[in-house]
């Protein structure tokens, strides 16, 4: 795991955009196309704006989401809406975007359609950028969620999982570790003192088995996929 710390959000966003651009460019050169999965929330906006400006072979790049709230794209909490507004502009407008939400009423009802579109359009992800919540969640893998076993079952065949815990204000769809563990490269991106403390707690080797308390440990204590942390200092 490489740990990269930057003095400001602006520098962090630029450096992460450089690192992700390099991976995407290499993958397009090697295999003719690349697949990128990105997270939502507040943190990635500046990174999206940086990445979207880069001159990459966008028409050969598929962009999808690590997770999504089950709301329409015009809802302010929609990750698809966020990506369209902040990433898929300028040169990046030429990318192909695959949202996770479909027209079904709930994530459970939309699961098969979501699963089919992922399997039809992606053979393997190349790059995934994760965020982290201050409760130690990443993607929509929440502490003690009833969906956690399915989300983290590495040998499962499902690439997506509905997350409908009653505590959640809005039900969600998330990619699973079965899909994300086959990625070429993963980044974990977060900012601020509070999240630095959460990260330190998550890294405690004595707690490495306690994934249910902080699901972000799935990324930190694995060896299948190279992981780079990008954060403020
Ligand atoms: O719920 C979510 O939160 C995390 C972190 O979001 P932030 O606003 O604290 O940056 C994000 O990674 C995830 O995709 C999103 O659905």
From TrEMBL:
Belongs to the glucosamine/galactosamine-6-phosphate isomerase family. 6-phosphogluconolactonase subfamily. It is an enzyme of class 3 (hydrolase). Residues 9-219 form the Glucosamine/galactosamine-6-phosphate isomerase domain. InterPro entries: 6-phosphogluconolactonase_DevB (IPR005900), 6PGL (IPR039104), Glc/Gal-6P_isomerase (IPR006148), NagB/RpiA_transferase-like (IPR037171). It holds the Pfam family Glucosamine_iso. It catalyses: 6-phospho-D-glucono-1,5-lactone + H2O = 6-phospho-D-gluconate + H(+). It comes from the Bacteria. This is 6-phosphogluconolactonase. Keywords: Hydrolase. Hydrolysis of 6-phosphogluconolactone to 6-phosphogluconate. The lineage of its organism: Bacteria, Pseudomonadati, Pseudomonadota, Gammaproteobacteria, Oceanospirillales. Pathway: Carbohydrate degradation; pentose phosphate pathway; D-ribulose 5-phosphate from D-glucose 6-phosphate (oxidative stage): step 2/3. GO terms for molecular function: 6-phosphogluconolactonase activity. Its EC number is 3.1.1.31.
């Amino acid at each position: 795991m490489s740990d990269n710390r930057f003095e400001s959000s602006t520098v962090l966003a630029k450096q992460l955009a450089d690192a992700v651009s390099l991976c995407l460019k290499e993958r397009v050169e090697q295999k003719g196309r690349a697949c990128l999965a990105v997270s939502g929330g507040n943190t990635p906006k500046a990174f999206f704006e940086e990445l979207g400006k880069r001159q990459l072979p966008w028409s050969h790049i598929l962009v999808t989401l690590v997770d999504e709230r089950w709301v329409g794209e015009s809802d302010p909490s929609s990750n698809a809406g966020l990506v369209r507004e902040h990433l898929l502009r300028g040169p990046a407008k030429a990318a192909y975007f695959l949202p996770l939400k479909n027209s079904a009423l709930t994530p459970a009802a939309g699961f098969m359609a979501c699963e089919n579109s992922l399997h039809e359009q992606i053979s393997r992800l190349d790059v995934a950028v994760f965020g982290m919540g201050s409760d130690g969640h990443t993607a929509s893998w929440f502490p003690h969620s009833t969906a956690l076993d399915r989300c983290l079952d590495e040998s499962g065949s499902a690439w997506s999982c509905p997350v409908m815990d009653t505590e959640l204000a809005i039900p969600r769809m998330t990619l699973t570790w079965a899909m994300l563990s086959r990625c070429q490269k993963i980044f974990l991106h977060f900012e601020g003192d509070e999240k630095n403390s959460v990260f330190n707690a998550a890294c405690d080797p004595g707690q490495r088995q306690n994934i249910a308390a902080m699901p972000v440990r799935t990324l930190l204590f694995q060896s299948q996929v190279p992981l780079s942390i990008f954060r403020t200092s």
